[in-house]
């Protein structure tokens, strides 16, 4: 009995010593080092997943290019993965839009020419899909490299706060990367994506006419009629993966109509827009201004042409989440395009008169959306 009591006393003493040691270690920052160790381990695990996503995307893109008889697909893709565009100087704002437009167009042209050279036996649709796949692969590698850079530089400078911040941001980063990775499969299949809601609205308003004409690079237009009004519809050229140049095309269309003596009384842009969490996918809202997710050159063309000729500029949006915008279009978004069509018709009836001309631009990616 005495022996058992002695053992118990030693156990209690040992436990107290351990607690004191733990307290002292935490007092001198051991707890922080332990926490940082777990943060770093978690980031490294997720970094390995990001690397796998990026390499899988690269391999799938190369596989698609090879199926379409590409020449040296691996080398072509590796050149484009690290391709970059430098923003123009913004300290001096004079002519910044034209300079930005020049840079953006140069980048788009470079991608287009690269795939024309690499895939000479493929059609335009296959080349545009390969170009989009290359951009997705590039985005995934950029995410991987960025996370790796923050981790290594923070570890090098012993910046534990940056490691903590990166660890807290990793769930959101992983979500974005996962969306891009899943979206790649949909683009490679050539199916309509959520961002194609705008072009689908334009297609429905045209009653699926087949006499679309090319107005600008990768951008088409057609004419129809609604309750005595002449309707001119603009969208990117499908079914390849492109957003076209809707701003420039719309400006040309309006100037052509005015030169014929037509009264352009209304300009409406229709586009997909990110919803707030809790909002219903496919819900529709309207407003004023140009509904277009663009760095600036295309959007400002809508604003300038509308201002120059005093044309009301109206916007209709179909709401969706980020993942829904770049992944295969679901029924809620498709139903949302029907609501948008009805909203556009309502705006035309309220804000234009028979005999006048209304221009409607369906903004968005035309993957899987033809004419």
UniProtKB/TrEMBL annotation:
Database matches in Pfam families: DUF1512, DUF1512_C
InterPro entries from the UniProt entry: DUF1512, DUF1512_C, DUF1512_N
Name this protein carries in UniProt: DUF1512 domain-containing protein
Residue ranges that the Swiss-Prot or TrEMBL entry lists as coiled coil: none
Residue ranges occupied by any DUF1512 domain in the UniProt entry: 14-188, 193-369
Organism of this sequence: Caldisphaera lagunensis (strain DSM 15908 / JCM 11604 / ANMR 0165 / IC-154)
Keywords tagged on the record: Membrane, Transmembrane, Transmembrane helix
Membrane-spanning parts: 12-34
């Amino acid at each position: 009995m005495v022996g058992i009591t002695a053992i118990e006393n030693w156990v209690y003493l040992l436990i107290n010593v351990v607690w004191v040691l733990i307290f002292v270690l935490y007092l001198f920052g051991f707890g922080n080092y332990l926490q940082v160790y777990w943060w770093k381990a978690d980031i490294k695990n997720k970094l390995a997943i990001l690397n796998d996503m990026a390499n899988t995307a690269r391999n799938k893109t190369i596989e698609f290019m090879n199926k379409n008889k590409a020449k040296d697909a691996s080398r072509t893709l590796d050149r484009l993965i690290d391709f970059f565009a430098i923003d123009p100087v913004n300290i001096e704002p004079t002519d910044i839009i034209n300079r930005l437009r020049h840079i953006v167009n140069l980048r788009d042209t470079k991608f287009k020419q690269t795939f024309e050279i690499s895939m000479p036996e493929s059609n335009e649709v296959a080349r545009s899909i390969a170009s989009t796949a290359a951009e997705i692969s590039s985005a995934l590698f950029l995410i991987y490299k960025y996370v790796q850079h923050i981790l290594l530089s923070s570890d090098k400078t012993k910046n534990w706060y940056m490691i903590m911040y990166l660890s807290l941001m990793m769930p959101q980063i992983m979500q974005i990367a996962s969306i891009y990775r899943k979206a790649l499969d949909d683009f490679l299949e050539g199916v309509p994506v959520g961002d194609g809601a705008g072009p689908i609205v334009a297609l429905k308003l045209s009653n699926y006419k087949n006499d679309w004409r090319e107005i600008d690079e990768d951008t088409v237009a057609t004419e129809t009629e609604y309750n005595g009004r002449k309707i001119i519809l603009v969208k990117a050229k499908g079914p390849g993966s492109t957003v076209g140049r809707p701003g420039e095309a719309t400006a040309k269309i309006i100037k052509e109509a005015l030169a014929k003596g037509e009264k352009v009384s209304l300009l409406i842009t229709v586009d997909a827009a990110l919803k707030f969490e809790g909002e219903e996918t496919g819900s529709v809202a309207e407003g004023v201004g140009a509904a277009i997710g663009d760095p600036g050159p295309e959007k400002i063309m809508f604003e300038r042409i509308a201002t120059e000729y005093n044309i009301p500029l109206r916007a209709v949006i179909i709401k969706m989440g980020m993942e829904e915008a770049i992944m295969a279009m679901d029924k809620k978004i498709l139903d949302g395009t029907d609501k948008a069509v009805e909203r556009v018709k309502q705006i035309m009836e309220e804000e234009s008169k028979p005999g006048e001309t209304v221009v409607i631009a369906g903004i968005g990616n035309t993957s899987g959306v033809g004419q």
